[in-house]
Amino acid sequence: MEGWINFYFIALPMLLALGFLKLLGRKNRPKKNLPPGPWNLPIIGSLHHVFSALPHRKITELCHRHGPLMFLKLGEIPMVVVSSAEVAELVLKTNDPLFAGRPSSVTLDIAFNGKGIAFAPHGDQWRQMRKVCIMQLLSAKQVKRMEGIRTEEMGNLLRSITASSSAGTTVNVSEKVAALTTDLLTGALFGAKFTWQDEYLHEFRKTMELVSGFCLVDMFPSSRLVRWLSNGERLVRRSCDRMQHIIAGIVQERNAVRAARRSASSTDDEDLLDVLLNLQHEDSLPFPLTTEIIGCVLFDICGAVGTISSILVWAMSELVCHPDVMSKAQQEVRKVLGKDRAVISNCDLAQLHYMRMVVKEVLRLHPPGPLLPRATREDCKIMGYDMLKGTNVYLNVFAVSRDPKYWESPQEFNPERFKNNSLDYNGTHFEFIPFGAGRRQCPGMKFSSSVMDVVLANFLYHYDWMLPDGVTLASIDMSEKFGLTLTRKYDLKLRAIPHVGSKSMPSK
Length: 508
Hints:
single chain, CATH 1.10.630.10
Protein backbone atom coordinates (compact mmCIF):
# COMPACT_ATOMS: atom_id res chain seq x y z
CA MET A 1 0.00 0.00 0.00
CA GLU A 2 2.80 2.36 0.89
CA GLY A 3 4.42 1.72 -2.50
CA TRP A 4 1.29 2.81 -4.38
CA ILE A 5 1.07 5.96 -2.21
CA ASN A 6 4.68 6.80 -3.03
CA PHE A 7 3.95 6.28 -6.75
CA TYR A 8 0.89 8.55 -6.77
CA PHE A 9 2.38 11.34 -4.72
CA ILE A 10 6.04 11.22 -5.81
CA ALA A 11 6.70 9.14 -8.96
CA LEU A 12 3.61 10.10 -10.95
CA PRO A 13 4.16 13.87 -10.68
CA MET A 14 7.79 13.35 -11.66
CA LEU A 15 6.81 11.34 -14.74
CA LEU A 16 4.21 13.94 -15.71
CA ALA A 17 6.80 16.71 -15.28
CA LEU A 18 9.32 14.82 -17.42
CA GLY A 19 6.68 14.23 -20.09
CA PHE A 20 5.77 17.93 -20.09
CA LEU A 21 9.42 18.96 -20.39
CA LYS A 22 9.86 16.53 -23.28
CA LEU A 23 6.86 17.97 -25.10
CA LEU A 24 8.09 21.49 -24.36
CA GLY A 25 11.48 20.58 -25.79
CA ARG A 26 9.89 19.30 -28.94
CA LYS A 27 7.79 22.44 -29.20
CA ASN A 28 10.79 24.72 -28.84
CA ARG A 29 12.93 22.63 -31.17
CA PRO A 30 13.03 24.04 -34.72
CA LYS A 31 10.63 22.03 -36.85
CA LYS A 32 12.26 20.21 -39.72
CA ASN A 33 10.83 20.78 -43.18
CA LEU A 34 10.60 17.17 -44.35
CA PRO A 35 9.46 16.22 -47.86
CA PRO A 36 5.74 15.46 -48.26
CA GLY A 37 4.46 11.93 -47.91
CA PRO A 38 1.44 9.82 -47.02
CA TRP A 39 -0.13 9.89 -43.56
CA ASN A 40 1.49 7.74 -40.89
CA LEU A 41 0.15 5.45 -38.19
CA PRO A 42 1.65 5.21 -34.70
CA ILE A 43 4.52 2.74 -34.40
CA ILE A 44 4.38 1.32 -37.96
CA GLY A 45 4.59 4.70 -39.75
CA SER A 46 4.08 4.27 -43.51
CA LEU A 47 4.43 0.49 -43.63
CA HIS A 48 0.74 -0.04 -44.38
CA HIS A 49 1.12 2.07 -47.54
CA VAL A 50 4.00 0.10 -49.06
CA PHE A 51 3.62 -3.43 -47.68
CA SER A 52 2.99 -5.51 -50.78
CA ALA A 53 4.39 -8.31 -52.91
CA LEU A 54 5.51 -5.54 -55.29
CA PRO A 55 6.52 -2.60 -53.07
CA HIS A 56 8.29 -0.80 -55.94
CA ARG A 57 4.92 -0.40 -57.66
CA LYS A 58 3.18 0.73 -54.47
CA ILE A 59 5.93 3.27 -53.86
CA THR A 60 5.66 4.49 -57.46
CA GLU A 61 1.91 5.07 -57.01
CA LEU A 62 2.65 7.10 -53.87
CA CYS A 63 5.30 9.13 -55.72
CA HIS A 64 2.73 10.09 -58.34
CA ARG A 65 0.56 11.53 -55.55
CA HIS A 66 3.20 13.16 -53.34
CA GLY A 67 5.83 14.40 -55.76
CA PRO A 68 9.42 13.71 -56.87
CA LEU A 69 10.77 13.84 -53.31
CA MET A 70 8.67 11.80 -50.87
CA PHE A 71 9.15 11.00 -47.18
CA LEU A 72 8.19 7.65 -45.69
CA LYS A 73 8.76 6.15 -42.29
CA LEU A 74 9.04 2.37 -42.25
CA GLY A 75 8.62 1.55 -38.60
CA GLU A 76 11.47 3.47 -36.94
CA ILE A 77 13.40 4.05 -40.18
CA PRO A 78 13.14 7.35 -42.10
CA MET A 79 13.24 6.98 -45.87
CA VAL A 80 13.13 9.43 -48.77
CA VAL A 81 12.22 8.36 -52.30
CA VAL A 82 13.48 10.26 -55.37
CA SER A 83 11.35 9.76 -58.48
CA SER A 84 12.40 12.35 -61.07
CA ALA A 85 15.50 12.77 -63.22
CA GLU A 86 15.98 16.36 -62.03
CA VAL A 87 16.06 15.42 -58.34
CA ALA A 88 18.15 12.33 -59.14
CA GLU A 89 20.75 14.65 -60.66
CA LEU A 90 20.75 16.77 -57.50
CA VAL A 91 21.39 13.65 -55.41
CA LEU A 92 23.77 11.71 -57.68
CA LYS A 93 25.76 14.58 -59.20
CA THR A 94 25.34 17.99 -57.56
CA ASN A 95 25.40 16.64 -54.00
CA ASP A 96 26.96 13.24 -54.68
CA PRO A 97 29.41 13.30 -51.70
CA LEU A 98 26.58 14.03 -49.25
CA PHE A 99 24.55 11.07 -50.54
CA ALA A 100 27.41 8.59 -50.97
CA GLY A 101 26.44 6.49 -47.97
CA ARG A 102 24.62 3.18 -48.07
CA PRO A 103 21.55 2.27 -46.02
CA SER A 104 22.32 0.43 -42.82
CA SER A 105 20.05 -2.22 -41.31
CA VAL A 106 20.44 -5.21 -39.06
CA THR A 107 20.29 -7.82 -41.83
CA LEU A 108 22.23 -5.77 -44.41
CA ASP A 109 25.02 -5.13 -41.93
CA ILE A 110 25.29 -8.85 -41.25
CA ALA A 111 25.08 -9.90 -44.91
CA PHE A 112 27.44 -7.34 -46.45
CA ASN A 113 29.45 -6.73 -43.29
CA GLY A 114 30.42 -3.21 -44.36
CA LYS A 115 33.78 -4.47 -45.64
CA GLY A 116 33.17 -5.18 -49.30
CA ILE A 117 32.01 -2.75 -51.99
CA ALA A 118 28.25 -2.79 -52.52
CA PHE A 119 27.00 -1.81 -49.04
CA ALA A 120 30.20 -0.66 -47.39
CA PRO A 121 30.04 2.80 -45.77
CA HIS A 122 31.66 5.60 -47.73
CA GLY A 123 35.25 6.13 -46.64
CA ASP A 124 38.88 5.25 -47.24
CA GLN A 125 38.36 1.49 -46.96
CA TRP A 126 35.49 1.55 -49.45
CA ARG A 127 37.60 3.65 -51.85
CA GLN A 128 40.43 1.12 -51.55
CA MET A 129 38.18 -1.86 -52.31
CA ARG A 130 36.49 -0.10 -55.23
CA LYS A 131 39.92 0.71 -56.69
CA VAL A 132 41.01 -2.91 -56.23
CA CYS A 133 37.88 -4.04 -58.04
CA ILE A 134 38.34 -1.70 -61.00
CA MET A 135 42.14 -1.81 -61.32
CA GLN A 136 42.80 -5.45 -60.39
CA LEU A 137 39.70 -7.62 -60.64
CA LEU A 138 38.51 -5.97 -63.88
CA SER A 139 41.94 -5.33 -65.36
CA ALA A 140 42.72 -5.90 -69.05
CA LYS A 141 44.39 -9.21 -68.20
CA GLN A 142 41.36 -10.45 -66.27
CA VAL A 143 38.95 -9.26 -68.96
CA LYS A 144 40.93 -11.25 -71.55
CA ARG A 145 40.95 -14.34 -69.33
CA MET A 146 37.21 -14.05 -68.74
CA GLU A 147 36.63 -13.80 -72.49
CA GLY A 148 38.03 -17.32 -72.83
CA ILE A 149 35.83 -18.57 -69.98
CA ARG A 150 32.82 -16.89 -71.56
CA THR A 151 33.45 -18.60 -74.92
CA GLU A 152 33.79 -22.01 -73.28
CA GLU A 153 30.72 -21.70 -71.08
CA MET A 154 28.66 -20.23 -73.92
CA GLY A 155 29.56 -23.24 -76.04
CA ASN A 156 28.42 -25.55 -73.24
CA LEU A 157 25.10 -23.72 -73.01
CA LEU A 158 24.48 -23.85 -76.76
CA ARG A 159 25.15 -27.59 -76.81
CA SER A 160 22.71 -28.04 -73.94
CA ILE A 161 19.98 -26.04 -75.71
CA THR A 162 20.53 -27.89 -78.99
CA ALA A 163 20.23 -31.22 -77.16
CA SER A 164 16.94 -30.11 -75.63
CA SER A 165 15.59 -28.99 -78.99
CA SER A 166 16.60 -32.31 -80.61
CA ALA A 167 14.70 -34.17 -77.91
CA GLY A 168 11.65 -32.01 -78.59
CA THR A 169 11.53 -30.59 -75.06
CA THR A 170 11.05 -27.00 -74.05
CA VAL A 171 14.01 -25.00 -72.77
CA ASN A 172 13.76 -23.44 -69.33
CA VAL A 173 15.50 -20.22 -70.33
CA SER A 174 15.51 -18.92 -66.76
CA GLU A 175 17.35 -21.99 -65.47
CA LYS A 176 19.80 -22.11 -68.39
CA VAL A 177 20.74 -18.45 -68.08
CA ALA A 178 21.11 -18.68 -64.29
CA ALA A 179 23.38 -21.72 -64.68
CA LEU A 180 25.45 -19.93 -67.33
CA THR A 181 25.99 -16.79 -65.26
CA THR A 182 26.84 -18.91 -62.22
CA ASP A 183 29.43 -20.87 -64.21
CA LEU A 184 30.86 -17.64 -65.64
CA LEU A 185 31.25 -16.07 -62.20
CA THR A 186 32.65 -19.29 -60.75
CA GLY A 187 35.22 -19.51 -63.51
CA ALA A 188 36.16 -15.86 -63.09
CA LEU A 189 36.43 -16.06 -59.29
CA PHE A 190 37.87 -19.51 -58.69
CA GLY A 191 38.98 -20.82 -62.08
CA ALA A 192 36.49 -23.69 -61.96
CA LYS A 193 33.64 -25.13 -59.94
CA PHE A 194 34.67 -25.52 -56.31
CA THR A 195 33.88 -28.26 -53.81
CA TRP A 196 31.22 -26.45 -51.76
CA GLN A 197 29.75 -24.42 -54.62
CA ASP A 198 26.18 -25.71 -54.37
CA GLU A 199 26.06 -25.14 -50.60
CA TYR A 200 27.60 -21.67 -50.92
CA LEU A 201 25.10 -20.62 -53.61
CA HIS A 202 22.22 -22.07 -51.58
CA GLU A 203 23.20 -19.96 -48.57
CA PHE A 204 23.79 -16.94 -50.82
CA ARG A 205 20.29 -17.18 -52.29
CA LYS A 206 18.75 -17.57 -48.82
CA THR A 207 20.59 -14.48 -47.62
CA MET A 208 19.57 -12.35 -50.60
CA GLU A 209 15.93 -13.39 -50.18
CA LEU A 210 15.99 -12.44 -46.49
CA VAL A 211 17.60 -9.01 -46.95
CA SER A 212 15.29 -8.22 -49.89
CA GLY A 213 12.06 -8.55 -47.93
CA PHE A 214 10.36 -6.73 -45.07
CA CYS A 215 12.24 -8.06 -42.07
CA LEU A 216 10.74 -6.79 -38.80
CA VAL A 217 14.12 -6.44 -37.14
CA ASP A 218 15.15 -3.98 -39.89
CA MET A 219 12.02 -1.87 -39.33
CA PHE A 220 12.31 -1.85 -35.51
CA PRO A 221 16.02 -2.29 -34.72
CA SER A 222 15.75 -0.79 -31.22
CA SER A 223 13.01 -3.18 -30.07
CA ARG A 224 14.29 -6.08 -27.99
CA LEU A 225 10.90 -7.75 -28.29
CA VAL A 226 11.04 -7.68 -32.10
CA ARG A 227 14.57 -9.05 -32.06
CA TRP A 228 13.41 -11.84 -29.78
CA LEU A 229 10.33 -12.67 -31.87
CA SER A 230 11.94 -12.31 -35.31
CA ASN A 231 14.19 -15.06 -36.65
CA GLY A 232 15.38 -13.04 -39.66
CA GLU A 233 18.52 -11.85 -37.91
CA ARG A 234 19.44 -15.37 -36.81
CA LEU A 235 18.82 -16.86 -40.26
CA VAL A 236 20.95 -14.25 -42.03
CA ARG A 237 23.76 -14.61 -39.51
CA ARG A 238 23.73 -18.40 -39.83
CA SER A 239 23.88 -18.30 -43.64
CA CYS A 240 26.62 -15.67 -43.66
CA ASP A 241 28.70 -17.54 -41.10
CA ARG A 242 28.42 -20.64 -43.25
CA MET A 243 29.50 -18.75 -46.39
CA GLN A 244 32.48 -17.21 -44.60
CA HIS A 245 33.44 -20.68 -43.34
CA ILE A 246 33.33 -22.02 -46.91
CA ILE A 247 35.43 -19.14 -48.26
CA ALA A 248 37.96 -19.59 -45.42
CA GLY A 249 38.29 -23.25 -46.41
CA ILE A 250 38.80 -22.35 -50.07
CA VAL A 251 41.43 -19.74 -49.18
CA GLN A 252 43.27 -22.26 -46.99
CA GLU A 253 43.29 -24.86 -49.78
CA ARG A 254 44.38 -22.29 -52.37
CA ASN A 255 47.22 -21.03 -50.17
CA ALA A 256 48.48 -24.60 -49.76
CA VAL A 257 48.46 -25.12 -53.55
CA ARG A 258 50.18 -21.78 -54.14
CA ALA A 259 52.88 -22.58 -51.58
CA ALA A 260 53.56 -25.94 -53.22
CA ARG A 261 54.04 -24.46 -56.68
CA ARG A 262 55.46 -21.07 -55.76
CA SER A 263 58.86 -21.67 -57.34
CA ALA A 264 57.40 -22.56 -60.74
CA SER A 265 54.13 -20.66 -60.74
CA SER A 266 52.90 -18.56 -63.65
CA THR A 267 50.58 -15.61 -63.27
CA ASP A 268 49.06 -15.97 -66.74
CA ASP A 269 46.10 -18.02 -65.56
CA GLU A 270 45.44 -16.35 -62.22
CA ASP A 271 41.78 -16.12 -61.29
CA LEU A 272 40.25 -13.36 -59.19
CA LEU A 273 40.88 -15.23 -55.95
CA ASP A 274 44.59 -15.44 -56.86
CA VAL A 275 44.63 -11.68 -57.46
CA LEU A 276 43.12 -11.02 -54.04
CA LEU A 277 45.51 -13.45 -52.34
CA ASN A 278 48.47 -11.77 -54.05
CA LEU A 279 47.35 -8.45 -52.58
CA GLN A 280 46.87 -10.08 -49.20
CA HIS A 281 50.38 -11.57 -49.18
CA GLU A 282 51.99 -8.34 -50.43
CA ASP A 283 50.36 -6.55 -47.48
CA SER A 284 50.91 -3.18 -49.17
CA LEU A 285 47.36 -1.82 -48.91
CA PRO A 286 46.51 0.79 -46.25
CA PHE A 287 43.72 -1.52 -45.02
CA PRO A 288 44.94 -5.14 -44.81
CA LEU A 289 43.04 -7.56 -47.03
CA THR A 290 41.83 -10.14 -44.52
CA THR A 291 40.13 -13.41 -45.41
CA GLU A 292 36.90 -11.93 -44.07
CA ILE A 293 37.16 -8.97 -46.48
CA ILE A 294 37.95 -11.34 -49.37
CA GLY A 295 34.76 -13.23 -48.50
CA CYS A 296 32.78 -9.97 -48.53
CA VAL A 297 34.17 -8.97 -51.95
CA LEU A 298 33.35 -12.39 -53.40
CA PHE A 299 29.84 -12.12 -51.93
CA ASP A 300 29.37 -8.75 -53.65
CA ILE A 301 30.58 -10.09 -56.99
CA CYS A 302 28.24 -13.09 -56.75
CA GLY A 303 25.38 -10.59 -56.68
CA ALA A 304 26.06 -10.00 -60.38
CA VAL A 305 24.67 -13.47 -61.13
CA GLY A 306 21.12 -12.39 -60.34
CA THR A 307 21.46 -9.07 -62.16
CA ILE A 308 22.76 -10.53 -65.42
CA SER A 309 20.39 -13.49 -65.56
CA SER A 310 17.38 -11.29 -64.70
CA ILE A 311 18.11 -8.87 -67.56
CA LEU A 312 18.65 -11.68 -70.07
CA VAL A 313 15.41 -13.44 -69.11
CA TRP A 314 13.46 -10.18 -69.37
CA ALA A 315 15.08 -9.57 -72.77
CA MET A 316 13.98 -12.98 -74.09
CA SER A 317 10.52 -12.46 -72.56
CA GLU A 318 10.03 -9.13 -74.33
CA LEU A 319 11.40 -10.45 -77.62
CA VAL A 320 9.09 -13.45 -77.68
CA CYS A 321 6.17 -11.13 -76.82
CA HIS A 322 7.13 -8.87 -79.75
CA PRO A 323 7.87 -11.13 -82.72
CA ASP A 324 8.53 -8.17 -85.03
CA VAL A 325 11.34 -6.94 -82.74
CA MET A 326 12.69 -10.49 -82.42
CA SER A 327 12.75 -10.89 -86.21
CA LYS A 328 14.51 -7.56 -86.76
CA ALA A 329 17.15 -8.30 -84.13
CA GLN A 330 17.77 -11.78 -85.57
CA GLN A 331 18.08 -10.45 -89.11
CA GLU A 332 20.69 -7.92 -87.97
CA VAL A 333 22.74 -10.47 -86.04
CA ARG A 334 22.69 -13.02 -88.86
CA LYS A 335 23.42 -10.46 -91.57
CA VAL A 336 26.33 -8.84 -89.71
CA LEU A 337 27.91 -12.10 -88.55
CA GLY A 338 27.31 -14.15 -91.72
CA LYS A 339 26.85 -17.91 -91.97
CA ASP A 340 28.46 -20.87 -90.24
CA ARG A 341 29.48 -19.11 -87.07
CA ALA A 342 30.03 -21.13 -83.91
CA VAL A 343 30.30 -19.33 -80.55
CA ILE A 344 30.07 -15.55 -80.95
CA SER A 345 32.41 -13.45 -78.82
CA ASN A 346 32.36 -9.79 -77.79
CA CYS A 347 34.71 -8.75 -80.58
CA ASP A 348 31.94 -9.66 -83.06
CA LEU A 349 29.36 -7.28 -81.64
CA ALA A 350 30.48 -3.78 -82.64
CA GLN A 351 27.97 -3.46 -85.51
CA LEU A 352 24.92 -4.87 -83.73
CA HIS A 353 23.26 -1.50 -83.21
CA TYR A 354 19.65 -2.69 -83.12
CA MET A 355 20.42 -5.44 -80.61
CA ARG A 356 21.99 -2.86 -78.32
CA MET A 357 18.81 -0.80 -78.63
CA VAL A 358 16.90 -3.87 -77.49
CA VAL A 359 19.15 -4.23 -74.43
CA LYS A 360 18.68 -0.55 -73.56
CA GLU A 361 14.90 -0.86 -73.81
CA VAL A 362 14.93 -3.94 -71.57
CA LEU A 363 17.00 -2.04 -68.98
CA ARG A 364 14.59 0.89 -69.18
CA LEU A 365 11.44 -1.19 -68.77
CA HIS A 366 12.89 -3.75 -66.33
CA PRO A 367 15.72 -2.09 -64.36
CA PRO A 368 17.49 -4.81 -62.36
CA GLY A 369 17.41 -2.70 -59.17
CA PRO A 370 14.08 -0.81 -59.13
CA LEU A 371 15.05 1.13 -55.99
CA LEU A 372 18.72 2.10 -55.84
CA PRO A 373 19.92 2.74 -52.27
CA ARG A 374 21.85 5.70 -50.92
CA ALA A 375 22.07 7.30 -47.47
CA THR A 376 22.78 10.85 -46.31
CA ARG A 377 26.16 11.33 -44.64
CA GLU A 378 25.33 14.81 -43.30
CA ASP A 379 22.32 17.05 -42.78
CA CYS A 380 21.56 18.93 -46.00
CA LYS A 381 18.76 20.42 -48.05
CA ILE A 382 17.28 19.29 -51.37
CA MET A 383 14.58 21.39 -53.06
CA GLY A 384 14.29 23.31 -49.79
CA TYR A 385 13.50 20.18 -47.77
CA ASP A 386 15.60 19.00 -44.84
CA MET A 387 17.47 15.74 -45.44
CA LEU A 388 18.66 14.51 -42.06
CA LYS A 389 21.91 12.62 -41.57
CA GLY A 390 21.42 8.86 -41.71
CA THR A 391 18.23 8.98 -43.78
CA ASN A 392 17.89 6.17 -46.31
CA VAL A 393 17.43 7.60 -49.80
CA TYR A 394 16.11 5.41 -52.64
CA LEU A 395 16.32 6.37 -56.29
CA ASN A 396 13.09 5.09 -57.80
CA VAL A 397 14.61 4.01 -61.10
CA PHE A 398 11.46 2.08 -61.92
CA ALA A 399 9.32 5.26 -61.76
CA VAL A 400 11.79 7.48 -63.61
CA SER A 401 12.27 5.02 -66.47
CA ARG A 402 8.49 4.84 -67.00
CA ASP A 403 7.73 8.54 -66.57
CA PRO A 404 5.85 10.05 -69.58
CA LYS A 405 7.70 13.29 -68.91
CA TYR A 406 10.86 11.67 -70.31
CA TRP A 407 9.54 8.77 -72.39
CA GLU A 408 6.85 8.61 -75.07
CA SER A 409 4.40 5.74 -74.43
CA PRO A 410 6.59 4.60 -71.53
CA GLN A 411 4.75 1.33 -70.84
CA GLU A 412 5.41 0.05 -74.38
CA PHE A 413 8.41 -2.05 -75.35
CA ASN A 414 9.91 -0.04 -78.23
CA PRO A 415 13.67 -0.28 -78.91
CA GLU A 416 13.28 2.26 -81.72
CA ARG A 417 13.09 5.04 -79.12
CA PHE A 418 16.90 4.77 -78.80
CA LYS A 419 17.50 5.23 -82.53
CA ASN A 420 19.64 8.22 -83.54
CA ASN A 421 20.25 9.48 -80.02
CA SER A 422 23.13 9.31 -77.58
CA LEU A 423 21.07 8.24 -74.58
CA ASP A 424 22.97 5.58 -72.65
CA TYR A 425 23.03 4.01 -69.19
CA ASN A 426 26.55 5.18 -68.28
CA GLY A 427 25.28 7.50 -65.55
CA THR A 428 25.22 10.81 -67.42
CA HIS A 429 21.52 10.75 -68.39
CA PHE A 430 19.51 10.75 -65.17
CA GLU A 431 16.27 9.63 -66.79
CA PHE A 432 18.06 6.35 -67.57
CA ILE A 433 20.20 5.04 -64.70
CA PRO A 434 19.60 1.27 -64.33
CA PHE A 435 23.12 0.86 -62.89
CA GLY A 436 23.06 4.08 -60.86
CA ALA A 437 25.36 7.08 -61.24
CA GLY A 438 28.00 8.97 -59.34
CA ARG A 439 30.64 7.47 -57.09
CA ARG A 440 28.40 4.58 -56.00
CA GLN A 441 27.59 3.50 -59.55
CA CYS A 442 27.85 -0.26 -60.04
CA PRO A 443 31.57 -0.98 -60.74
CA GLY A 444 30.67 -4.18 -62.60
CA MET A 445 28.46 -2.41 -65.15
CA LYS A 446 30.78 -3.00 -68.12
CA PHE A 447 31.30 -6.64 -67.21
CA SER A 448 27.54 -7.21 -66.90
CA SER A 449 26.90 -5.42 -70.20
CA SER A 450 29.47 -7.50 -72.07
CA VAL A 451 27.93 -10.74 -70.78
CA MET A 452 24.40 -9.62 -71.67
CA ASP A 453 25.41 -8.64 -75.20
CA VAL A 454 27.29 -11.83 -76.02
CA VAL A 455 24.64 -14.20 -74.61
CA LEU A 456 21.79 -12.40 -76.37
CA ALA A 457 23.69 -12.34 -79.68
CA ASN A 458 24.27 -16.10 -79.48
CA PHE A 459 20.62 -16.76 -78.67
CA LEU A 460 19.44 -14.63 -81.59
CA TYR A 461 21.96 -16.05 -84.05
CA HIS A 462 21.70 -19.77 -83.33
CA TYR A 463 17.99 -20.30 -82.64
CA ASP A 464 14.49 -19.36 -83.67
CA TRP A 465 12.51 -19.08 -80.47
CA MET A 466 8.88 -20.13 -80.21
CA LEU A 467 6.27 -20.44 -77.49
CA PRO A 468 5.54 -23.93 -76.13
CA ASP A 469 2.52 -25.74 -77.56
CA GLY A 470 -0.72 -24.39 -76.15
CA VAL A 471 0.80 -21.07 -75.04
CA THR A 472 -0.28 -17.86 -76.78
CA LEU A 473 1.10 -14.34 -76.64
CA ALA A 474 -1.96 -13.26 -74.66
CA SER A 475 -1.37 -15.93 -72.02
CA ILE A 476 2.29 -15.12 -71.27
CA ASP A 477 2.60 -14.13 -67.63
CA MET A 478 5.02 -11.21 -67.23
CA SER A 479 4.53 -10.89 -63.47
CA GLU A 480 7.44 -9.60 -61.40
CA LYS A 481 9.08 -10.83 -58.24
CA PHE A 482 10.51 -8.07 -56.05
CA GLY A 483 13.96 -8.24 -54.48
CA LEU A 484 17.32 -6.51 -54.61
CA THR A 485 17.05 -7.64 -58.24
CA LEU A 486 13.68 -7.48 -60.02
CA THR A 487 13.04 -10.87 -61.64
CA ARG A 488 10.24 -12.71 -63.39
CA LYS A 489 7.84 -14.37 -60.98
CA TYR A 490 7.70 -17.51 -63.11
CA ASP A 491 10.39 -19.21 -65.17
CA LEU A 492 10.46 -18.50 -68.90
CA LYS A 493 10.09 -21.66 -70.98
CA LEU A 494 10.45 -21.64 -74.76
CA ARG A 495 11.10 -23.93 -77.71
CA ALA A 496 14.44 -23.40 -79.45
CA ILE A 497 14.68 -24.30 -83.13
CA PRO A 498 18.31 -24.39 -84.38
CA HIS A 499 18.82 -21.89 -87.20
CA VAL A 500 19.86 -23.41 -90.53
CA GLY A 501 22.57 -20.80 -91.17
CA SER A 502 24.40 -21.32 -87.88
CA LYS A 503 27.17 -23.80 -87.30
CA SER A 504 26.20 -26.71 -85.08
CA MET A 505 28.02 -26.99 -81.79
CA PRO A 506 30.48 -29.88 -81.76
CA SER A 507 30.09 -32.25 -78.82
CA LYS A 508 32.86 -32.09 -76.27
